[in-house]
Design brief:
The chain is mainly alpha-helical. It is built from nine helices and four strands. The protein has helices at about 1-5, 15-20, 25-35, 45-60, 75-80, 90-110, 130-145, 150-170, 195-210, and strands at about 40, 110-115, 175-180, 185.
């Protein structure tokens, strides 16, 4: 049983057992990080920012109620955060869940930091007001776009609608596409044999390196 427990991975491929072993490390630096660095973000990042603020206030506490959480938890983390029956609360799991959301938001540039070069606000360098009005005709002409948004949006809307209808019509008859556990699964492509010139080139390079 001990061996099975060691080899078993938690729900939805979240290796929480390994993560939880590092909780003391994250417990030491995360509150200081949230205190010293000011995170900002766009509208879509507000649940993540609220969760981070909540952690900064509540990580030192011992008794935390599920109803006090600032936002919902994604489905793949719910069992770890709230237990099998949904009536528990694991602060460790919620902490790692929030950190995962923060890292994803930083990669998407939904959350940004000031001052920062890599994680700064992506909208701060956009042309606005009179500057944009003066440059707009030239930029649209260079990109081949209409100065008015309606033609481009209508074209993209029509293209998306046609593509969606085509995929929906052929979905049931496509043996290479299935849905398992609410996930889209595609049949892997057949492996292609390496061409002879590539094999010769690899051997030539290996010979010269040796």
């Amino acid at each position: 049983m001990t061996k099975v427990t060691d080899l078993t991975r938690p729900h939805d491929k979240i290796n929480f057992m390994e993560l939880n072993e590092k909780y003391r490390t994250i417990r030491l630096f995360l509150p200081l990080l949230l205190e010293e660095i000011q995170f900002n973000g766009n509208v879509s990042s507000q649940p993540t920012l609220n969760a981070m603020s909540w952690l900064a206030r509540n990580m030192p506490k011992r008794n935390i109620k599920k109803s006090e959480l600032p936002s919902l938890v994604d489905k793949r983390w719910q069992r770890l955060v709230f237990g099998k029956d949904g009536d528990e609360f694991d602060l460790h799991a919620y902490t790692f869940y929030t950190v995962e959301k923060l890292l994803l938001a930083l990669k998407r540039r939904d959350v940004f930091i000031h001052p920062s070069w890599r994680y700064s606000d992506p909208q701060k360098d956009l042309l606005i007001d009179d500057e944009w009005t003066q440059c707009k005709p030239m930029i649209c002409r260079a990109l081949g776009l209409s100065p008015q948004p309606e033609p481009t949006l209508n074209s993209l809307t029509a293209e998306l609608d046609q593509t969606y209808r085509a995929v929906a019509a052929s979905f049931k008859n496509n043996p290479d596409v299935t849905i398992e556990n609410d996930r889209l699964k595609l049949t892997p492509l057949d492996k292609l044999d390496e061409p002879l010139p590539l094999i010769r080139l690899r051997k030539l390079i290996s010979k010269r390196l040796s």
